[in-house]
Design goal:
Protein name: Holliday junction branch migration complex subunit RuvA
Order of helices and strands: EEEHEEHHHHHHHHH
Main location: cytoplasm
Subcellular location: Cytoplasm
Strand order of the largest sheet: 1-2-3-5-4
Helix content: 40-55%
Largest sheet: 5 strands, mixed, barrel
Number of domains: 3
Pfam family, one: HHH_5
Number of strands: 5
Strand content: 15-25%
Family: Belongs to the RuvA family.
Distance between the termini: 54 Å
Radius of gyration: 18 Å
Shape: globular
């Protein structure tokens, strides 16, 4: 299994990039967002990868973070979602956006991805909602361990992607879990709080999430 490639960008296509690793060119398929974050031809690049093996096909898919790779793996586990559909969802929403949409049960956001119908979008939300808290927490762990620095290293100022608040969301999610809230409801509340205030810190997310989780009436 090829889990990571480090080399230089040879060229970028519409949906893929060729990475030269010691004179061997690897074609790696990526989401639109990942492609946009890659440096120009000739510059150093590193991507986490997932190898799709079929009887008549071998395809590598590339990701700037392990969180994006994990969402690809989970999306592919849903009936009716193949590699192309997974890339479309990640292109439309990004890794953090996928997490928020699923945690919130927002099938309309998933359905906005190219080629994704309402039934497939509903299956994605229903089947992965319980997985969202774990992936959100994984994002925070990787931030703290500098695990997402791979994207920061390979990007130039002109192509750098906007920063995310994954670490704060993960800490808030952990805090709500310690308070006794179920993972699913905690993830939904944190995702909604982060959507309403993308720049909120951990304390702000916890406070907003607790208001959302408070009994109504």
């Amino acid at each position: 299994m090829i889990g990571k490639l480090s080399g230089r960008v040879d060229y970028r296509g519409v949906d893929h990039v060729m990475i030269d690793v010691g004179g061997v060119g690897y074609i790696v398929y990526c989401s639109d967002r990942t492609l946009a974050a890659l440096p120009p031809a000739g510059q150093a690049v590193a991507l986490y990868t997932d190898l799709l093996v079929r009887e008549d096909l071998l395809q590598l898919f590339g990701f700037t973070t392990l969180v994006e790779k994990e969402w690809h793996r989970l999306l592919m586990s849903v009936q009716g979602v193949g590699a192309k559909a997974s890339m479309a969802i990640l292109s439309a929403l990004g890794a953090d956006g996928v997490g928020r949409a699923i945690a919130l049960g927002d099938m309309n956001s998933v359905k906005a991805a190219k080629g994704i119908g309402p039934k497939t979008a509903q299956r994605v939300v229903n089947e992965l909602k319980d997985k969202a808290p774990g992936v959100m927490a994984m994002g925070g762990t990787l931030q703290a361990a500098k695990g997402v620095a791979i994207a920061e290293v390979i990007e130039t100022p002109a192509t750098a992607a906007p920063p995310t608040n994954a670490a704060a969301e993960a800490e808030a999610l952990s805090a709500l879990g310690n308070l006794g809230y179920a993972p699913g409801e905690a993830a939904g509340a944190v995702a909604e709080a982060a959507r309403d205030d993308p720049g909120a810190d951990v304390g702000g997310l916890i406070k907003a999430a607790l208001k959302l989780l408070a009994p109504k009436g």
